[in-house]
Amino acid sequence: MSNPWSRWLQVNDTALFQLSRKAGWDAFVNTAPRADFATLTVEEMARLGPEESEDYAEARAVWNANPPTVRTAQLTAAYQVIDDVMASNRRDADKLRGSVVIDAEPGLGKTTIATRYAREFHRRIYRRYGPATAAGDQRLPVAFVTLTDGITLKGVNQRLLEFYGHPAARRGSRAELTALAVDCVASCDTRLVVIDELHFVDFAGRHGTEVSNHLKGLANELPVTFIYVGVGLREKWFFDEGLIGEQVVLAQTSRRATRCPVVPFTTATDAGARAWATLLATLEPHYKLARARPGMLTDHARLLHERTQGRIGSLTTLLDRACARAITGGAESLDARLLSCVPVDNAAEQLSHSA
C-alpha cells in the first residue's frame, strides 16, 4: 500500500508560481485549491510508520504555511476602491482610464490584495470570452510585473516583455521595446496591468521622472487599467511625479490615480478588537494540529496583536512557525508560551519589545 501523504505531497506541495511570467501567472489563476485531508489524532499518528509520519508532518507543514485569504475589512475596502476605478475599464479605447495605487506599509497584504483581485478578474474575462482572442492569439487579461531596485524606463519595458515571454525582451532600443510592449498588451487583449514594488523607483531622480512619464504614456496609449503596488508612494512623490512647489499642480498622476491605503488591525476600539478576533476565529480551523481546539487563537488575541502590531503578514508568519514548532516538539497545539517565544520578522519583534 502506497504512502497517502507521499501522494498528497506530489500533487499538493507548495506551488512555485513565478507570477511575473505568463506561465506562472496562468498556473496561479487556474490551479485548483489544495485537496484537504483529515487531521489525525495523537493515537492515529502513533500508528504511522516512520516514512508515513515524516510525510504527514510535511503535508501539514505545507498546509499550515498556506492559510486562506480572509476577506477582512481591509480587503473588502480595497476591493471596493478597485471596483470603483475599474468601472472606467469599460470605456472605449479613445478614453483615458484611471489607475489604482495600493500604498501602505510593509506586511499589510498589499500584493495579496492586488493578485487576488487580478485573479478573479482574469477568471471572469476567460469565462466570458475564452482563452483566445478574435485574432487567435493567447488571451491574457492580466499582466503582472514586479520592479527591481534602480529600475529604468527601459527596464520597465523589459519586465513587461518578460512577462509575455517575448524573445526580444533584452534587445532593442527604448522606443523599440516600448512598441513591442504595446503590441503584446494589445495582441493578448490585456485589460489589467499590475505593477508591484513600485517603491523601487526614485521619482525624485531623472530615471524616476522618465518612468513616471512612461507609465502615463502607456496609460494614454493602452486600453488597460493599472494597479500600482508599493510602500510609501505618497512620501516618495509618486503622485507628484517628483515635482515640487507650485509645479505640483501640474502632476497628472495625482488627478488620474486613486490612492488605496491599507491599514493594520487595531484593538484600540471595540470594533477593531472584534475585527481582529474575527480574523483569528476564521484562521483557527485552518491549522492542522492534533490537539487544536476552539479558542486556540482567539484566547490569545491580545498577545498576537502585541507581537504582530495587527499586520497580517507578521501574523501568518508567526502562526505557521508556531505550528511547525508544535508539530516537531509534539505539543500539537498553540498556547501562550509557544506564541510568545516563536521568532517573527525583525520589525514586529522590535516593535513588540518596545511596546
Shape estimate:
globular
Distance between the termini: 54 Å
Task: Give me the Rg, rounded.
Answer: 23 Å
Pattern of helices and strands:
HHHHHEHEHHEHEHEHHHHH
State the total count of DSSP E strands: 5
- Which fold does the CATH topology of the largest domain refer to? Rossmann fold
Structural class: alpha/beta
Would you identify the regions where 5 or more consecutive residues have pLDDT less than 50? 242-251
Q: Largest beta sheet: what is the strand line-up?
A: 2-3-4-1-5
Strand fraction equals 5-15%
Classified in CATH, the superfamily of the largest domain is P-loop containing nucleotide triphosphate hydrolases
What is the residue-averaged pLDDT? 88
> What is the CATH class designation of the largest domain?
Alpha Beta
How many strands, which pairing sense, and closed or not: the largest β-sheet? Answer: 5 strands, parallel
Q: DSSP helix count?
A: 15
- Provide the helix percentage: 40-55%
Please indicate the count of domains.
2
Going by CATH, the architecture of the largest domain would be 3-Layer(aba) Sandwich
